[in-house]
Amino acid sequence: MPVDLVPHPLSVTELPGTFLLSDDVVIVARGSATDPAWLLHDALRAGTGLNIPVTAKHRNDSSPSITFTQTGEEPPDAFPSTAIERYRLDIRTDGVTIESSHPAGFVRAVQTLRQLLPPSTLRTAPVAPGPVEVPCVSIDDEPRFGWRGVMLDVARHFQPKEFVLRLIDLAALHQLNVIHLHLTDDQGWRLEVPGWPKLTEIGSWRSETVRGHGRAANGFDGTPHGGYYSTDDLREIVAYAARRHITVVPEIDMPGHVRAVLAAHPELGNTGQQKPVATTFGIFSEVLAPTDEALAFARDVLDTVVDIFDSPFIHIGGDECPRTEWEESDAARARARELGLSDVSELQSWFTAQLADHARLHGRRVIGWDEILEDGGAPRDAVVSVWREFATAAKAVAAGHDVIVAPQRAVYLDWYPSADPDEPLHIHGHTPLETVADFDPAPADVSEAAPQGDGDHAPAGDPGTGFGRIFGVQAQLWTEYMPTPRSVEYAAFPRLSAVADMAWASMDNRQHHPVTTRMPAHLQRLDAVGVNYRPLDGPRPW
Ligand code: TNX
To answer: Which protein residue's CA is at the shortest distance from atom 8 of ligand 1?
Structure first.
């Protein structure tokens, strides 16, 4: 039985025989392994109907067991860190053992075990209830990167909470550990902020939406579009992800991409003019004014975000912020002078620094798209999401920034998966599965760009892990042309499976066992989960 796992583990040894998972089996787990053990219990219950007990001690009888064992000292709960995700999974004919020093590693082992079961067990109810055979195998595993993410844009098209939870399940199955939610943009504001009711009353709705699919989709038929998550919805999402050791990174895009904010609060803009929430896509000239009032707003939103999300990193956007309004505003120019800036274009850098200061007060760090490096730059503790030129990754690392590799040419899943004219409407260029499968997010020249042996890069209390690192890699799902979960899944899969492999597997394993050859087996898993993936041989929408 070939074990075509996605992502590919660091080391896999296939052994003869199978382990019979039946109702004679018990799961043995204590302490930090208890929650992951129940995650396994729940998955087995759903997929096989077996109600395998979780106990703290081995029984005296000879019941075969799946035993979770904590090994060594639990490493500090640092994120991102590959050490906490290390695990060993040993499946023998007479029992299964899972070892890790941290619950994150136990959860990853559970996901690998799920992939080793017959694909039909990934369904939400058993189609063939009862015992299943698991191939014997010995796996030693650790990810290449500690940040393995997917960004979902819920602003351009609101995506129901149930779909966010499903995406978390799919991410978990693929060993991804970050869901980045792009919560705000010109076309909609998607989170409730106590004290700012107009943001959701006005900013979450637009009068038109892009309808349909295919190349004719870019039309409007007067159907309004909207929606937002309540603070409880978001807390539920965070808790659901946390059980799977996935961090939900919220993004509030500022100071550009704020048409939805300004529709609700024109007083935060540069012209005072009230314009509706945007109904088309692109880059708009409207940006936040560099005023104390706008800054107070941004801080208030960050306070809410920090209260809901436990992520050590808060994304503040920073992409595509035109300077035109600032250049044309006497007040903005005066403010820039007052702040001692040499030009209004540095107002964005000032804004980033203010938000980074505020985040730091809460013990958090900001992330920004790579534009934050321009016109004055960003504080060194700001993490940079490199999305335009991949070469920027090396520059950002050399400047001492931690980096998330997210270049559009390799990991923008909103780009076309092929040049086939029958592809449903996507955006910009082409990112076929093969391009994703071949991309190395940290080739030597990028990873070696880090400042060497400079103690001054090490954050206080964290010796040995200086700034200037490649955290990992992240795929983007911008939803301009993805109106529904079904269209998101079509764009995402199976390319996101290849991103997961890129983020976890070693280059050596990726070269010797290309993800494209493992894909046919993996698609059976996606079939069982009911994922609306794009078939390997092209479009059939729908
Ligand atoms: C650029 S990537 C954007 C988004 C668009 C995307 C479409 C980035 C930081 N900004 O606003 O949705 O291109 O691919």
So the answer is: 319
